[in-house]
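Q: Entry one of two.
A:
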Amino acid sequence: MMLRAEFTTEPFEGEGEPPAHALAARDCLLAAGLDPDFGPLGTAITADRERLLPALAEVLDKALAAGASRITLQVTADGDQV
């Protein structure tokens, strides 16, 4: 089953470099061999369930450890259809 996940990490820090918690989240996905669409207001990723769910658990852990105070996550099944 394909999944599409979209998430944001907060706090937002305005203009300039992305905050450490956003970079940590992105880097978890890259380390898992995934190709996230990383942007200033959030990250989106489509992958099979077996690869994405463990990567998302790591994203939550690492982003919180890097200073995220809130993570908003939406997961849609059959992400290749969205």
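Q: Entry two of two.
A:
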Amino acid sequence: MNQNPIKIASLGIQHVLAMYAGAVIVPLIVGGALGLTGEQLTYLVSIDIFMCGIATLLQVWRNKFFGIGLPVVLGCTFTAVGPMIAIGGQYGISAIYGSILVSGIFVVAISKYFGKLVRFFPPVVTGSVVTIIGITLIPVAMNNMAGGQGSPDFGSLPNIALAFGTLLFIIVLFRFFKGFIRAIAILLGLAAGTVVAYFMGMVNFSAVGEASWFHMPAPFYFGLPTFEVTAILTMVLVAMVSLVESTGVYFALGDICDEKLEEKDLSNGYRAEGLAIIFGAVFNAFPYTTYSQNVGLLQLSGVKTKNVIYTAGAFLVLLGLVPKIGALTTIIPTPVLGGAMVAMFGMVVAYGIKMLSKVEFSSQENLLIIACSVGMGLGVTAVPELFAQMPSSIRILTDNGIVAGSMTAIILNLVFNVFKGNKQVQPDTFIEQKAS
């Protein structure tokens, strides 16, 4: 490729746009669910964009200790949204960052060995976990479509019209466009919905006016982290599922870039993700993982140079240092966000089902694993007081639907497939699926 600075810059911006909606919508959803103020939400969005850039640079920069050294972009993982909302609602925001910090340290600690542990997370487990997480997120989307839980105009006609209008616009973009427009359909949907909401008198620009032009990231902005066993278990599970997904992205990128990945390369990639998660906890951002949408962009553009990704990472860092840009995203009305969430959270469920499509469904054991884990996850989410009378040591595993469902899937997979020696669809197949 011609190392033209303008061309590299434009391709870098394209990578930023491809992942921007996914990056900013996570802090908007989590911050909104936790009832953060406009100022806090602006910080959360800004620091998240900043840390996406730092996490990307950590992963692209290959050295002896960390970095996969492939043109990969990192962003906050959607898998963590449901768990973070649940943890924040039960234990407070400080417990979210305590659990993220421990999960990051855990990832760094097991990075050398995770390649061997992947066999315990075949598609029947990861697919079930991702499906459970997607299902538990849908009520958040529904509440936002109606205007947000507790809002005085909850379920009003303007809110419902705005939410469904945003969703319809996103569907139209997916139906009639391909390539880059389709890749940023959620972002365009949020923008269009906000413009319509402005003419309906539902947009408040005060957060943008109050935001500063420049700030420096502040460690532990929301206070020192606290540590709850249930929260930590939840985030460790989320981190391990993200690592399995990242493994698929690594191999897909290795194939695209004609690079054969060794075990040490994978360990360095896992270690970079662990460091990104730790930094996310320290600066009150989020857990980070590889973004597969940017792999698709690499295939579309045919440009595989790391300079483009370094540029994208630098752009993200710069954007994150300007709170006014972060504040712009906070003006999106709740119903608009809810309309986009239906598509995004539904895609989480659909992606979980896609992962499950690689499972051998003729096996009754696999059907039972999926049935029990999804049933347990959804059941505990719907009826959280089910295990209220149990000892606290047991409730660590049962208070949260995602933990309960995930643990059920892991244990039953061990019982039916690992210890029994059944031939199970292994992560290689999952990796092929991601590569395609």
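A: Comment on entry two: The longest strand covers residues 74-76. Strands lie at 74-76, 288-290.
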